[in-house]
Design brief:
binds zinc ion; 116 residues; 3 helices
């Protein structure tokens, strides 16, 4: 399956919607992975509930960021949570590549470290 959309934004949106459904499609045109990298590493696919939560947070986060661009003193809790989740997905992805490395993502509630 190929991603639809003649703009980057549309392709990202289509990729996200398919990913929530469980169809992980690598964005060939922009060379971007799904949030959890499951398009390239299928075993990294997050459970449906987590995918749905991420989708909701990122939709709300997009709206917050539009407001934040006008007034950057406002809080953006959903955007921050979505990015925290991305940090967690990144940790899992890096862990897959080298499980002996310790990973710490600043600001992430999904911090993970290992003692060798
Ligand atoms: Zn990929």
């Amino acid at each position: 399956m190929k991603l639809k959309g003649n703009t980057y934004k549309k392709r990202v949106k289509h990729q996200l919607i398919e990913w929530v459904k469980g169809n992980s499609i690598h964005n060939e045109k922009d060379n971007e992975c799904c949030p959890d990298f499951s398009c390239c590493k299928p075993n990294l696919l997050q459970p449906e509930e987590i995918r749905k939560t991420f989708y909701t947070l990122s939709e709300l986060g997009d709206k917050e960021m539009k407001e934040w661009e006008k007034d950057n003193s406002i809080e953006t809790p959903n955007y921050d949570k979505a990015h925290s989740m991305l940090g967690g997905f990144l940790c899992s992805g890096l862990d897959e590549i080298d499980p002996n490395k310790s990973i710490h993502v600043v600001g992430s509630s999904f911090n993970k470290s290992k003692l060798n």
